Amino acid sequence: MLLPFFEWCENTAIGETIRNSLWLFPVIEAVHLLALCLLGGSLLVVDLRMLGVGLKGQRISQVAGYARPFLIGSIVTLVCTGLLLFLSEAVKCYYNTSFWVKITTLPIALLLTFAVRDRFSLRKSFETSAMSRLLGAGSLTLWFVVAAAGRWIGFS
Ligand code: HEM
């Protein structure tokens, strides 16, 4: 049912231009990877703090506040570059299990990050607790699955 849509995506002018270029895909994927590094860093400082590891001199809300612009910037960059990569090889992604794992886990990770984790971590009174550890561990696990599945697309 979805295959005609994926075929349409792959045959867009953008998809074709990236596919026919020698350097566009690797350059876009390099930006995708750099954004991944920024995402990893901005998640880790807050999630480790919520797990009670590192930066104990600052409140969770302070660390979360500093990291938030980098978190949002990296996710916007990942989604934009990811869509370009996807358009260039949409049919390959359609038959790729790792792509479906990634694209199913991504909305869950985004929901947890912006609907739950944000609500707690930005609260001034929020301190290391069973809830903060659960949030930190859950966030790291979900985003690890998204990144690992993204990496595996290229291997499979
Ligand atoms: C927002 C979170 C995202 C993360 C953490 C992420 C992570 C990754 C990683 C780690 C890779 C492997 C790069 C490499 O090592 O060469 C990758 C590749 C890729 N990602 Fe993403 N990505 C994200 C969003 C997206 C989105 C929204 C899409 C498309 C709708 C997407 C589509 C792709 C594609 C098509 C590849 C290339 C696979 C290949 O090498 O053929 N990504 N991503």
Topology, element by element:
Layout lengths: L2 H8 L2 H8 L3 H27 L9 H29 L1 H5 L2 H25 L8 H26 L1
The site of protoporphyrin IX containing FE has 21 residues, from helix 3, helix 4 and helix 7.
Question: How does this structure look, described?
Answer:
The structure is a single chain. The chain is mainly α and 156 residues long. It has one domain (3-153). The chain is built from seven helices and no strands. The chain has helices spanning 3-10, 13-20, 24-50, 60-88, 90-94, 97-121, 130-155. Helix 2 packs across helix 4 (60-88), helix 3 (24-50) runs antiparallel to helix 7 and helix 6 runs antiparallel to helix 7 (130-155). The mean pLDDT is 96. The structure holds protoporphyrin IX containing FE. Protoporphyrin IX containing FE (HEM) binds next to helix 3, helix 4 and helix 7.
* Ligand species: protoporphyrin IX containing FE
Order of helices and strands: HHHHHHH
What is the number of independent domains? 1
Radius of gyration: 18 Å
Distance between the termini: 23 Å
From the spread of the alpha carbons, the general shape counts as elongated
Mean pLDDT: 96
Helix- and strand-based class?
mainly alpha
Strand content: under 5%
E-strand count: 0
Number of helices: 7
Percent helix range: over 70%
Low-confidence runs: none
Briefly characterize the structure.
The protein has 156 residues and is mainly α. It contains seven helices and no strands. Helix 2 crosses helix 4 and helix 3 packs antiparallel against helix 4 (60-88).
